[in-house]
């Protein structure tokens, strides 16, 4: 994520992500290291929220005198384009933690097969589609796209890791694979300082309620 150093804000006239679509997401649990595998990536919409907040902050109208009163002899000058851009939030303001996910855009493949491809491309784990457990389906982005999202659960081990992941650069993906230790999962989920999707929070709670008792694992709730 530190490699993002050039950001340009322009009108969005066309995007596949602003149309009605269907999505698959996968909660990945590594049974070797007892950690969850998430992805971290830059989201323009999240960055724009921070950009809008920064844009509304206007410089003070005048300098303060020693008595704390505004100086009448000096007026605030409008910021130049260069000065304005220097006040933009850093790229990290648009980065979020998410489940491995992808668009359902291959009609010849099942949801499980598409989810398997996403796990391989984004996170580098080769998991048979038959090993994916369906958790549930729900609507996301109801105020914008109304997308239907289907969530799966996949258990992997270090033996399943065949690459570093990172997504498909030619598709505009720039993804960092992140590991969240199991014993820190619920603290991570409820820490409001960590930008994350609702899918992460829900899936961690699902794991705590359904998988932790089975494996007698503590999620530190």
TrEMBL record:
Chain intervals with Low complexity compositional bias: 73-91
EC class name: hydrolase
InterPro entries: NDP_pyrophosphatase, NUDIX_hydrolase-like_dom_sf, NUDIX_hydrolase_dom
Region (Disordered): 57-91
Database matches in Gene3D superfamilies: Nucleoside Triphosphate Pyrophosphohydrolase
Source domain of life: Eukaryota
Reaction catalysed by this enzyme: UDP-sugar + H2O = UMP + alpha-D-aldose 1-phosphate
NCBIfam families, A to Z: nudix-type nucleoside diphosphatase, YffH/AdpP family
Subunit structure: Homodimer.
Full protein name: Uridine diphosphate glucose pyrophosphatase NUDT14
